[in-house]
Every structure is written in structure tokens, then in C-alpha cells.
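Quick one: Tryptophan-rich sensory protein from Cellulomonas rhizosphaerae, C-alpha cells please.
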Amino acid sequence: MTTTTAVQPTTSRDRVRQVTVLLGAVVAIGGAAVGSGAFGGQAIADAADGALSATATPLAPDSPAFSIWSLIYLGLAVFAVVQALPRHGADPRLRAVSWWVLASMLLNAVWIGVVQAGALSASVLVILVLLAVLSLLLVRLTRIDHTRPVASVVTDTTVGLYLGWVSVAALANIAAFLADAEVGDLGLGATGWSVVVLALAAVLSVAYAVFGRRRPTVVVPVGLAMAWGLAWIAIGRHDGPLVDDTVAVAAAVAAGVALLAPIVATVVDRLRRGAR
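--- reply ---
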């Protein structure tokens, strides 16, 4: 269901929100860059005794996968600037999501700090809260009509990529925590559990696609980011220090599902609406 919200005049609260989100984005993105080792210091892959490195668990994406953060940070920076423009002060979609986008940026910075401190259990909690915030953004962006084209596309694309990547990263984070905690193979073994988790990732990608089928500007980026992360899991397990052909195949299949699900869901929905 899509909700249409009437445009209202810009208020002082809108101006406060715009300035706060802009300044908060500078702090959050800058802090994340410094904390991740972009300007020197310890990289995330080396933090927590390497628990989140590309070869720590069968569900760890290969190193090039993390280059997607550059695109996500760029999108968040553009979003912060676009939402701060005077003409967007009363934009109903930006009113509904801007604070939550800022919350997601701050949570990401907190996650980096927690990982650098070596607190893997806390990192799982933070990334799950981040995933919940991004899922809320998906709901809001799906239910509220597009307003100005540039603002809508920037917001949808950025949140979609962010949600898709964090969905995969959360799975890798949980796997890293469990491995670090030495919980054992829990009956299925590392390969078996990895395949189960990858199947759940594929199901999650379909759920996103079906829910947001009427907002392809959001769910197609979600699918692209999930496919990117899952494909790099497949590559990492096919060639590298931690080879697992079964996991590689499962990850490749999950990546294909994530890529196609939003396209199929959107096309089917449009055909059904056109037939009515």
C-alpha cells in the first residue's frame, strides 16, 4: 500500500533536521573512515584478532567485496547534501526517513568502534540494530510516494545498497562471532551451517523483493548489493586459503536469487496490475 502525503510548508523543525543530518553525516562518515583504517591505523580485517578477515569463516566475503562501502558512503554523503537543500525542507519522504538514515550512519560508526575494541558479541548486537533500522527505512520508502525525482532516486538507491550489503555483512558477522566463541560445528559442520545460512540469505532477498516490488528503485539496489556480497563469498571459497566448493556453489546460487528476485517480483506485479 502506498501512502500519499500532502506537501506542507517548511518549518523551523525541518531546518533543524536538515542541518543536524548534514553535520551528523560528516561526523559519522568521517569517523567511520578513520575507524576503518582508511587514513592509517588498524584495518577492520585485522581487528578482533582477524575474526572478520576474508578467510576467518566460510561465510566471509573476499576482500574486494568491501569496496562497496565507497559507493555506499558516497551515496550517504550525496543524500546528506540533497536533503539539506532549502527546496527539500518540507519533502514528506525526507521528513519520514532522514533521522533514521542518520541513525544508520551513526550505528555503522559505532559498529566500527566496537569491532576495533575487539568486542565481537557487541558488534553482533549493533549490526542487528543497524539492519532493523535499514529494514524500517525499506518499509517507509516503499509506502510513501516518490516526491522530487533526484531526492527520491538518491534516497532509494543509497538505502537499497546499504540494506543489501548489511544483510550479507550481518550473516558474516554472526558467523565470525560464533567461530571466535568456539561454539563448535553444532551437528552440521561448518560447511552444512554455511549452506543453511546462505539459503536463508536467498530467502531474505526474495522477501525484500516481494515486499518492495512496487518500489524497484529500492529493491533492485538491495538485490544488487546482496548479490555482490554473496558472489564474493563464492569467489573466496572457490579460490584462496579457505576453499570450500560446496559453500562456493551455494553462495553463487544465492547470489543469482538475490539478483533476479527484485526484477521478477517487479515484473510480475506490473503484469498483474496491468491485467486488472
